[in-house]
Amino acid sequence: MSKIQEELENTLKLLKIEWKEELEQYRAKTLGASITDKIKDGICWYPVQITKTRVGMGERLIIHLEKSPSTQSHSFQSGKSVALFSNASEGKQLRAGAVINSVKKNTMVLTLTGREWPDWLHDGKLGLDLQFDEASYKEMQWAMESVIKAHEGRLGQLKEILLGAVPAAISEDTKAIDVQPTLNESQEAAVALVAQAQDIAVIHGPPGTGKTTTLVEAIQHTCKRTHQVLVCAPSNAAVDLLVEKLASSGLNALRLGHPARVDDQILELTLDARISRHSSFKDLKRLRRSVDEFRKQGRKFKRNFGAAERAQRKELLAEATHAKEAAQQLEEYIIYDIFQQTQVIATTLVGAAHSSIKGMSFPVVFIDEAAQGLEPATWIPILKSHKVVMAGDHCQLPPTIKSYEAARAGLSETLFEKVIKRNPKNSQMLSLQYRMPQLIMEFPANRFYKGQLKASPSALLHQLQPEEPVMEYIDTAGSGFSEHLEKDSLSKLNTEEAKLCLKILSNLIDRLGLDQVKEQGYSIGIISPYKAQVRKINELIDEEEEFKSLRSLEDQTTIGSIDGFQGQERDIVVLSLVRSNETGEIGFLGDYRRMNVALTRAKRKLIVVGDSATLSTDTFYQEFLDFVTDKGLYKSVYEFMDF
Ligand SMILES: Nc1ncnc2c1ncn2[C@@H]1O[C@H](COP(=O)(O)OP(=O)(O)OP(=O)(O)O)[C@@H](O)[C@H]1O
């Protein structure tokens, strides 16, 4: 067996270990567990009441739910798969699949996976279970098996090239390319590389250097020459960001994926929305209504059936089937028509296995944030493509891997890293960043990029107001604040620190003036490495009177984990580090790439809040504390202790 085949077989083996680990963790929580156990584990809500049902975009069925208030934490998050169940039928549970749109402390909005309301929806007591997402693993396994099996054809060639056994080809044609005049020299060189590369091109570089911006330019350029391209990223948030930029650059983009997982601003570009805007949609609706009508009529005749009624019923149900087939055909035509008009099909890596693009192939696939994609997931869109373009930064967050064994044995190395190492000539580095002023950039630039990262003149001027410092570190040491473990999720939170962060942010908003912040449209990010802290911050903003001004900025504010912020930027960022304990334990803050992402999201103001007594046990954080002290960015919590 060749080295490459061995390597791929090994990756498949590691994927199976990871799959087993995640399944075992899920089973440990669910198998044989009573509803009470599951509620305690934070993976079940029961009972829940329906507060509203409605039909959303694309005729999706949407349910608003509420449970009685409790302090019980849970693992429900937007985008996750759940099952709604009822205890109405004795012994057997009635279940319907759904995806979470949004979740607050005691309320949730869901989109049902099916197209029909379950007939038990208003019977018995309802509950909600978190589901294990096995479909993604199946797709990744299938992709790995396809790559292993491919010895000929384009996939057979691509695997040899991407994994470094065969050199990648670059065209000699160095015709000047027509790009936006705003691109810098290395960004322009990256677009040229994408045009010339026959097999693979990689754009890499530190945060804010315009990898996504350059990728969008390269996509535009490619779309002038080809009918359609595939564009992917590992996370829904990263796909949404790309789609937004592609659509505003004038490209006809289609966002594939479940609408509940898509940002509200992008909903208009989903297949559901595009179908509902199609000129034949009215006919489709009419046909679907007639299916329902025939069925309803057919089911009316239940008792005292004579031969004539039986025949009539048969006829009505046959009509229903007929209308259903016609509706399906029309829907297929509408989808075909939409795809014909689409220049860019955008989806997550795993979403590239979506049935609506089954059997399609693309001249080029563009993968953004490729350094965050698990290798088996990254192969999924490559199976459909002739040429591969990746953008990313391997000093930012890697993919999340649950099995320590699989990560250590090599699953943590991404295809992006392998490609850069093995095809150095086919990559273009960007090193001029446009996001952060010097002070925000300096520490990550020195610590992660050997000082090679430079700030563009425009970024140097980024600030909120001349007298407002662009960066501050607020030390909570000595305050008595301390972290807690959220028992059910095993995530950490630090309530006092969460309040302090919001207080500091409210003060900043007061200084700038609420109206001014709204008028300027400053975007705000409140970030923490821990999901439990993110939940706590959300809860405080929703409930506490003193954070009223922050509530009124809801549309401009994003609260999330560091992992969810990769690829994004905000004018103002508050980072809550949470860890505060006697033993100096810093847990997964020890993955410094996570801090690299967190420290490089802010454009005009970065406020970091943490406990130096705990953090300084680690040399990386000690260096960071030395940096903020040297630069005069250090403040103690005592300056804010009046609250
Ligand atoms: N040539 C340019 N001129 C002016 N602004 C630019 C240029 N290139 C990128 N930018 C701006 O810099 C910011 C960062 O760009 P972008 O998000 O593309 O960077 P990135 O490298 O993908 O960042 P990250 O590593 O965080 O994902 C954006 O606000 C973008 O508009």
From TrEMBL:
<dbReference type="GO" id="GO:0003723">
    <property type="term" value="F:RNA binding"/>
</dbReference>
<dbReference type="Pfam" id="PF13087">
    <property type="entry name" value="AAA_12"/>
</dbReference>
<feature type="coiled-coil region">
    <location>
        <begin position="284"/>
        <end position="333"/>
    </location>
</feature>
<keyword id="KW-0378">Hydrolase</keyword>
<dbReference type="InterPro" id="IPR050534">
    <property type="entry name" value="Coronavir_polyprotein_1ab"/>
</dbReference>
<dbReference type="GO" id="GO:0005737">
    <property type="term" value="C:cytoplasm"/>
</dbReference>
<keyword id="KW-0963">Cytoplasm</keyword>
<dbReference type="GO" id="GO:0005694">
    <property type="term" value="C:chromosome"/>
</dbReference>
<keyword id="KW-0175">Coiled coil</keyword>
<dbReference type="InterPro" id="IPR041679">
    <property type="entry name" value="DNA2/NAM7-like_C"/>
</dbReference>
<dbReference type="GO" id="GO:0005524">
    <property type="term" value="F:ATP binding"/>
</dbReference>
<dbReference type="InterPro" id="IPR003593">
    <property type="entry name" value="AAA+_ATPase"/>
</dbReference>
<dbReference type="GO" id="GO:0043139">
    <property type="term" value="F:5'-3' DNA helicase activity"/>
</dbReference>
<keyword id="KW-0347">Helicase</keyword>
<comment type="similarity">
    <text>Belongs to the DNA2/NAM7 helicase family.</text>
</comment>
<dbReference type="Pfam" id="PF21138">
    <property type="entry name" value="SMUBP-2_HCS1_1B"/>
</dbReference>
<dbReference type="InterPro" id="IPR027417">
    <property type="entry name" value="P-loop_NTPase"/>
</dbReference>
<dbReference type="InterPro" id="IPR041677">
    <property type="entry name" value="DNA2/NAM7_AAA_11"/>
</dbReference>
<keyword id="KW-0067">ATP-binding</keyword>
<feature type="domain" description="AAA+ ATPase">
    <location>
        <begin position="197"/>
        <end position="612"/>
    </location>
</feature>
<keyword id="KW-0547">Nucleotide-binding</keyword>
<dbReference type="GO" id="GO:0016787">
    <property type="term" value="F:hydrolase activity"/>
</dbReference>
<protein>
    <recommendedName>
        <fullName>DNA helicase</fullName>
        <ecNumber>3.6.4.12</ecNumber>
    </recommendedName>
</protein>
<dbReference type="InterPro" id="IPR047187">
    <property type="entry name" value="SF1_C_Upf1"/>
</dbReference>
<dbReference type="Pfam" id="PF13086">
    <property type="entry name" value="AAA_11"/>
</dbReference>
<dbReference type="InterPro" id="IPR048761">
    <property type="entry name" value="SMUBP-2_HCS1_1B"/>
</dbReference>
